[in-house]
Amino acid sequence: MAKKPTKSHIKKIKSALEQEKEKLFHQVEELKKDDPFSDPDHASDNAAIDTDVREQVGHETIVAQIKSLQRRLADIDTALEKISKGKYGLCEKCGMSIPQARLKLIPEARWCVSCYQSLYK
């Protein structure tokens, strides 16, 4: 059976999660600035078809990256909420402690390895 993280370990994890959240938030903001569709003149310019295609592909790539980062941000928010409620480190499916090695690699992990694998088979 996995040990529950100690209070000092949880404090370190919380700090790391908050730093990661800030970093990801800034990445999302930078991606939004880089989106070719964020240019107010985009809708009114008469660019060549190949330019329009490049802009569309660039936009779709940025949207996909933002969605991925937002999912990670949501997982981090969930982990921080669990910390505040004293439920951090417990699998959402089986309720058992998530191994510390897994939490060290993925501090926002929501499931133990067995349950994660069963969810994504």
Explain what this protein looks like in three dimensions.
α1 runs antiparallel to α2. The protein has a domain at 7-88. It has 4 helices and no strands. The chain has 121 residues and is mainly α. It is elongated.
Write the SSE topology.
Elements: H1 7-34, H2 49-85, H3 100-105, H4 113-119
Report helical residue fraction: 55-70%
Radius of gyration: 20 Å
Strand content: under 5%
Mean pLDDT: 87
Taking the sheet with the most strands, its summary is: none
What is the ordering of alpha helices and beta strands?
Answer: HHHH
User: In one word, what is the shape?
Assistant: elongated
Number of helical elements: 4
List how many beta strands DSSP finds.
Answer: 0
The poorly predicted ranges are none
InterPro entries: DnaK_N, Znf_DskA_TraR, Znf_DskA_TraR_CS
Domain Zinc finger DksA/TraR C4-type: 86-120
Zinc finger (dksA C4-type): 91-115
Protein name: Zinc finger DksA/TraR C4-type domain-containing protein
Index terms:
elongated, mainly alpha, 121 residues
Task: Summarize this entry quickly.
Helices cover about 65% and strands about 0% of the residues. The chain is mostly helical.
